[in-house]
Model the fold of this input.
Amino acid sequence: MERDLTLTVGQEPTGRKEIDEEHQPTRSRRINREDRRKPSYRPTAVTFSPNSEYAFSGSDKGIRVWRVKDRKHIETMGAERVVCLAVSKDGRIAAGTVFGDMLVWDANTYKYLSVTRGSNTINGVDFSPDSTRLVSASDNCTATVWDTATRERVQTLCHEGSTLAVKYSPEGNRIATATSCSV
Done:
């Protein structure tokens, strides 16, 4: 079944860009076994800016910024093995990596702001609605809440099993987590 896509980042395994020259939506298609090659850019995470003007995609080769209205690639920020992305309402981008790094950039200048190093994959990140907290989900069975101003750990939530995803409630007073054992 084919679906129209309004914004697709990356390349198909055949190497054909999915964002075409006329900025027209592309269609999914099945690829024959003979056509399969390693793509030059394979996104593993994607999110929008709060105003939906920009899309951000993460991969083994960094984080790319795309302007939605014309599908133009604006910037690439250096990062390796990105697993997840989040954008705050006050203009920061957070990324989690398989190496356990949580990286933060300014979403307006693309300037690198901070890194928090860990040893387990960061599977999910999310900013609180007021942008004062950042929560990360990790393979070490925890979700950790960070103060975005001081970059200090505020709280650690322990789970049974790897923490696979994390999300603040719209009010910011709750955190939902998904683990390998439960939600």
User: Anything to note?
Assistant: The CA atoms of residues 105 and 111 lie 5 Å apart. The two ends are 31 Å apart (CA to CA). The chain has two domains: 1-41, 43-179.
